[in-house]
Design brief:
alpha+beta; RmlC_Cupin_sf; about 425 residues; GMPP_N; Nucleotide-diphossugar_trans; Spore Coat Polysaccharide Biosynthesis Protein SpsA, Chain A; 9 helices; mannose-1-phosphate guanylyltransferase (GTP) activity; Jelly Rolls
Length: about 425
Amino acid sequence: MRPVILCGGSGSRLWPLSKPKQFQKIFSQNTMFHNTLLRLKSDYMPPIIATNVQYEPLVKKELHALREYKVIFEPVKIGTAAAILIAALLCNENEIMLVLPSDHFIGDLNNFHASAQKASQIASEADSIVTFGVKFHKFDSEYGYINAVYDHKEKYHIVKDFIEKPKHVLSNDYYWNSGIFVFKAKRYIDEIKKSAPSLYNLCFKHFIPQERFLYLKQRDFAGIEGISIDYLVMEKAKNITMVEANFDWLDVGTWNSVLELSEKFSKEPVSFQHVIREKEPVLTTESNKNLLGGAYKQPNKSLLLFINKVKKAKAIRREIKPWGFYSIILMSENFLIKYLFINPLSCTSKQFHHYRDEYHIVLSGVGYVSLGDKEYAIVKDHMIEIPREVSHRIENRSTSSPLEIVEFQIGASNKEKSC
């Protein structure tokens, strides 16, 4: 079985942690990505890893755990459907692929491997696309759900429907969609040929198999829609089956899920109390959703602050610029959060910083970030890191749409220096 590890997410819901969640050490001495590699080290073929090129240093840092692997570096956020297609094109057509995210918590590895082997057998014998469903103990509208019925003759579940983030409690025939899939490479390629022939032609034309590292060209994929496997394949294909996941599983996507994990697996006590820090300014944000807060560290302690039900508030200050404006949302001695609004066909000035790092997350639009002598395209929900001492600027090339960005500054000085 060939693992395909999806490692391109921005993990922005675990703000203010600066790195994407797959590169965070959450209840482990290893990052979540590293634990995924270790989980698949034995009894599996060498993995194919799909990630964004901006995470190249973080990915390569972890690869010492493996002897063989292939990595697909995406220049922009191409979506899971395209990333998995390119991985499938790197496989022999009858290879069984195990597709899974790099940022999920998986416990009880023996049961996980047994479930994977069962799914592999179904995919091989029935030429089915197999997904893993998780029996949930409480309803959560943030998850996608699978409607599946057990077939006593075949001894697996037949998938009837997928529902993305429903609003109400569902029946016992529903399971959490884990985002883990098993299928033959040829079966997946054939599904893409049927549902999105233009995507197949684009990926087939522009990917060039290389020994270890496959760098996709930005000029070839700049206009691609970042479509998910759920929308393009799972919701349209026939002969979809499900294996019930008999192991602990959680998508560590929010601070609530971190809290749930800490209650169950952390050796440190979990405290429920109000926290007031009088010397720090109050966070103000414009939002229709509740805010789940972040992390605060002291020597020998890690304190998770869960801030619930933060309602509508106004930003502290708005500063007009030639390219648009920015608003300061939160400011302290070593920390600053800004909201940037960049007008169409505008760009920020080129600058660099001696004493701080920056992290930009796109809220809407498409931005082009000049970072040293390289350029990166960033789209909605995409995060890019701007290290200190590196010149940079952000450009909005759209003729009609603004570019909206949240900027996090971490460091000793909030002053900027123009190049």
